[in-house]
Design brief:
- Helix content is 45%, strand content 15%.
- By secondary structure, the chain is an alpha/beta fold.
- Strands 3-2-1-4-5-6-7 form a 7-stranded parallel β-sheet, sandwiched between helices.
- Strand 5 (131-136), helix 5 (149-169) and strand 6 (174-181) form a beta-alpha-beta unit.
- Helix 1 crosses helix 8, helix 3 (61-74) packs parallel to helix 4 and helix 4 runs parallel beside helix 5.
């Protein structure tokens, strides 16, 4: 796998962290494929970045297989997969949580990451030229916040999946790592960041005293996918302004 002109597939690449990650890889000379459940968002992002795009619901097994095959046939074998797509699907105390919110969260965050890892990882292994997979998780996998238990449990499961995939795919030269942000200013957290009191309360938990921007998270993803991280696999890199120190 060369450092330049890799094929990089980013899920949830139409906005937020995924959009920033796609932009950074494209700026570095890689051939980027923006995958998003919103065809409009994927197409718009790809047009701005000079990238390719595909509409994809990562929780749909048949759709994942079809999309990954399409990428391989149209663009080339995937060298880097960034499993970024995810959601909270709502919130609330576990004893009151809507079961549909729990199921949706796990279907997208865990099942979707599994399906993408399965489809792309199998092709990477068959190709025999290595590869890199980077999963976007959350420090919530290790530090609970009331009302987000379902989301945090799904991200803890993705971290476990990251370690399992790392040890299973290592013999084929495929590295699997995670980046675990704290809260980040994205469309998904717009409610939090727009509320001055809520934002201030959260920032009091962060030693560096601010909620992250997308640009704070992107370099960690790019690094873990790069040859400079060639001896790192099964790791989860927190990008949280020190919040886990509390």
């Amino acid at each position: 796998m060369g450092e330049l002109s890799r094929v990089v597939l980013v899920t949830g690449g139409g906005s937020g962290i995924g959009r920033g990650v796609a932009e950074s890889f494209a700026a570095g000379g890689d051939r980027v494929v923006v995958a998003d459940i919103s065809a409009g968002a994927a197409e718009a992002a790809a047009a701005e970045l000079g990238a390719e795009w595909v509409a994809l619901d990562i929780s749909d097994a048949a759709a994942v297989e079809a999309a990954v095959s399409q990428v391989h046939d149209r663009i080339g074998a995937v060298d880097v997969l960034v499993n970024n797509a995810g959601l909270t699907a709502g919130g609330g105390p576990l004893v009151e949580l809507d079961i549909a919110a729990f199921d949706t969260c796990f279907r997208v965050n865990l099942r979707g990451t599994f399906l993408m890892t399965r489809a792309v990882g199998a092709r990477m292994a068959e190709r025999g030229e290595g590869g890199a997979i980077v999963n976007i998780t959350s420090i919530g996998a290790r530090q609970p916040t009331p009302g987000l238990g379902h989301y945090e449990a799904s991200k803890a499961a993705v971290e476990a999946l990251t370690r399992s995939a790392a040890i299973e795919l290592a013999p084929r030269g495929i590295r699997v790592n995670a980046v675990a942000p704290g809260p980040v200013r994205t469309p998904m957290t717009a409610g939090l960041t727009a509320d001055a009191a809520a934002r201030a309360a959260w920032e009091q938990r962060i030693p560096l005293a601010r909620i992250a921007e997308v640009a704070d998270v992107v370099p960690a993803v790019v690094f873990l996918a790069s040859p400079q991280a060639r001896h790192i696999t099964g790791a989860s890199l927190q990008v949280d302004g020190g919040q886990l120190l509390g």
